[in-house]
Specification:
Number of strands: 4
CATH topology: Amino acid/polyamine transporter I
Shape: globular
Strand content: under 5%
Number of domains: 1
Largest sheet: 2 strands, antiparallel
Number of helices: 23
Strand order of the largest sheet: 1-2
CATH class: Mainly Alpha
Order of helices and strands: HHHHHHHHEEHHHEEHHHHHHHHHHHH
Length: 514
């Protein structure tokens, strides 16, 4: 189709720019900067943020539904953010990174996650600090607000901040169609068609390369998504808090069984990850110095891209739902941002990688998949190597992929809604929701590579204005973090820093201990 060919050509050009050296340096450089200025908060205060995130899940004020109908609880905010981040990137994305960049790509995913923890932390700190009420009296926060009111408040930066805020909002809307819809649905269709074969439907081609089965799956997702998305954030959050913990725990248990059965391959798998992070795989071991550099660059790029695709640190996306939390302390919600990246990449993505690398479906020596399996079904084949009876493993991954991807569609619908709200007002957001739902069907009929590449491109476009804002405002992040540490850890009697708005600051101070 000429239309899709034109999209592919334009997308390749833009993708090459945003994911070039400048984009990657900005991404990792921001994480390093924030890690340094917060004194390696993710490590130096490991016990504190762990206690105040996963360790607080039995506290009623964290998991209980807030009485404020305009906000959601911290746990609901986390689940909704994880709903958007724990998606196809954790399964197909990891497999694609390994197939394209080798086992060493996993190492660079870890690097991106380590520094990404503090990027995500900083985004959420700024999100809470610069949030405000919209015309429906709901919380609204995100990169567009700290770009406009934070960066824009700097001398001579008023219009720069406003322009970047508008660009970020536009890119978020586009990204919600890519990473938040088409890319996710595309992987659902591929895995469901493979695991639950219905030949009569697959053989009927509606148009070139697209079966009736794929269209019916897409239509079913449209109906389910409509019932939840049109109900607003509280319905999305209510669904997410029930489904996300279940799906993550079920996948982790399944992955642990696979890795446990193949325990003898665990050390070789880690060896391949560390070795291939800096050297090419054996199949191309005799290449020139230039080729060696190219291979390593490709491995790093795949690791960083897939890491960001998975945990979204640096995109400024999850801050839009974290800002709806009923917490008063910016740093408290920032710590949930650290845990979000940790859970998504360090736990889920690592387990997915180990499933692939220990199960025998991927040759550690040559970097080739066994039996001609594609990256789209690599994890399913790994699960099937253990749970082979009736292809239970493949069916399990298909169901997991469905849940992971479907909840991502829901989470990203909120992100796109908030971006639309910034541009056009809260009363018109139903228009965006209808458009977003319509793109679900488009994802069901697109080619896998195009849907994936579009998602990467829109991620990169969001990342650039957001990270510019975070870098410029890092002194504020440092100030707010130090204020919190002084008060909560060192028990100093200092005035809290909670909001840029004096009225919100005063209100938050009054209810700070609630």
């Amino acid at each position: 189709m000429k239309f899709l060919e034109a999209i592919t050509s334009v997308n390749d050009a833009v993708n090459g720019f945003v994911w070039g050296k400048v984009g990657l340096i900005l991404l990792i450089g921001t994480g390093i900067l924030l890690t340094v200025v917060t004194k390696v908060f993710q490590v130096s205060h490991l016990g504190h943020w762990w206690k105040n995130t996963i360790g607080s899940l039995f506290h009623r004020d964290v998991i209980g539904h807030t009485k404020d109908k305009r906000a959601i609880s911290p746990f609901q905010a986390l689940c909704t953010a994880l709903a958007a981040t724990v998606g196809t990137g954790n399964i197909a994305g990891v497999a694609a990174a390994i197939c394209t960049g080798g086992a060493g790509a996993v190492f660079w995913m870890w690097v991106a996650a380590f520094f990404g923890m503090m990027t995500n932390f900083s985004e959420n700190v700024l999100g809470i600090y610069y949030r405000r009420r919209n015309e429906k009296n709901e919380w609204s926060g995100g990169a567009m607000y700290y770009l406009r009111d934070g960066l824009g408040a700097k001398k001579g930066c008023k219009w720069i901040g406003r322009i970047l805020a508008i660009l970020f909002s536009c890119f978020t809307i586009l990204a919600s169609f890519g990473i938040g819809s088409m890319g996710q649905v595309n992987k659902i269709v591929l895995n469901v068609e493979s695991a639950f074969k219905i030949g009569a439907l697959s053989e009927i081609k509606v148009f070139e390369g697209v079966s009736l089965y794929a269209i019916l799956i897409g239509a079913m997702i449209v109906i389910l998504a409509s019932l939840i998305i049109l109900g607003g954030l509280r319905r999305i959050a209510s669904f997410a808090e029930k489904v996300v913990p279940f799906m993550v725990i079920a996948f982790i248990l399944g992955a642990l069984i696979i890795v446990g059965k193949n325990y003898a391959n665990i050390l070789p798998a880690f060896g391949a990850i560390f070795k291939n992070a800096f050297t090419p795989i054996a199949a191309i071991g005799g290449v020139s110095g230039y080729m060696l550099k190219t291979v390593i660059d490709k491995t790093m790029t795949q690791g960083f891209k897939r890491g960001v695709f998975s945990n979204e640190a640096g995109l400024g996306s999850s801050v839009m739902v974290h800002s709806n939390s009923n917490v008063k302390e910016p740093v408290k919600q920032g710590m949930w941002g650290i845990f979000e990246v940790f859970a998504d990449t360090i736990i889920v993505c690592t387990l997915t990688a180990l499933v692939v690398l220990t199960s025998g479906v991927y040759d550690l020596a040559t970097g080739a998949t066994v039996g001609g399996v594609s990256d789209a079904t690599l994890v399913a084949s790994a699960f099937n190597s253990v749970f082979s009876f009736g292809n239970i493993g493949e069916k399990f991954v298909a169901v997991a992929m469905f849940l992971f991807a479907f909840t991502t569609v829901l989470g990203w619908s909120h992100y796109g809604t908030k971006a639309w709200e910034y541009l056009f007002g809260a009363k018109s957001t139903v228009v965006f929701k209808i458009i977003h739902i319509a793109t679900i069907l488009l994802g069901a009929v697109m080619t896998s590579s195009l849907a994936w590449d579009i998602s990467d491109t829109f991620n990169g476009l969001m990342m650039i204005p957001n990270l510019i804002g975070v870098v410029v405002l890092f002194p504020l992040v440092m100030k707010i973090t130090k204020n919190y540490v002084d008060r909560k850890i060192h028990k100093k009697n200092v005035k809290p820093i909670l909001s840029y708005d004096p009225k919100i600051q005063e209100e938050a101070e009054e209810h700070l201990d609630e």
